[in-house]
Amino acid sequence: MPASLLSSTPRLRGRLLVTAATAALAIVLTGCAAVAPAAPASSPPPTFGHIHAVIPEAGGTLLVGTHTGLYRVDEDGAVDGPLGDYDFDLMGLTDTQGALIASGHPGLETPTELGSPNLGIIRSDDTGKKWHPVAFTNDEDFHVLTASPDGQLYGIGSTSPALRVSNDLGTTWESRTELDAVDLAVTTDGTIYAATPEGVRTSTDGGASFTPLGDAPLQYLLEAAGDTVVGVGTDGQIWQRVGKGEWKAIGSATGTVEALGLSPAGDVILVDERGIVALDDDATIILPALSSP
């Protein structure tokens, strides 16, 4: 994969259609039985469009930020959503301290108070049922957005290359150094990893300055959990670094990776040409990609 990928849109794009199985409803009444209404033979699959983020949840489900809203996908590939019936395009999405923080663009039915043509920073405190605007409403679109384990938010908006930092769940932001990064990740010790066209760079002073990480493969997506960082290399490899150790290849992608997730237990989830994939011994496909109509 050419290094030019790093100079294109931060969240690399593709199309993914998904199917959700329908379940028959059984009704059991004490002393008698009722016939359940027949479930439809099939239901139209929701169209995700681009997938920009995937967040593993406790219990094995995934939150999936897409071109058409926020969805929840379980281990069997069943899909619920769009959550809250919001149809916005979530270009950036992260979670911290029980809140979801997002950015992007409104859909046709997105409430006007969330912003247009850009959502700025929006927040949900109930896992996507309700969203409200908190900063940069109408003005910014954050493709690069992540949270550190201590709750700080880091992002780069569409109007400036400045790294911005928030300590209050996105309400106020402070600008730090300018950074040509397409993705960010933060480990427990506060080290910020930035994927840039020149290679991975790190900061240990809260984003005031960055230095090259010379032994790192060229990567365009990064995620962190605890002291572990995983990334997607332009060579198609999935790379992992634990603490200050060496980078090790732990798997490979099929085509371009649209989104990358890492659970606190170290489970790697990615979205590539196969669909939504759990990177384990068998590269288990949670939700297969279907051909575009």
TrEMBL record:
Signal peptide residues on this chain, from the entry's feature table: 1-38
Coiled coil: none
Sorted UniProt keywords: Signal
Gene3D superfamilies documented for this protein: YVTN repeat-like/Quinoprotein amine dehydrogenase (2.130.10.10)
Entry-linked InterPro entries: WD40/YVTN_repeat-like_dom_sf (IPR015943)
SUPFAM superfamilies per record: Oligoxyloglucan reducing end-specific cellobiohydrolase
UniProt name for this protein: Exo-alpha-sialidase
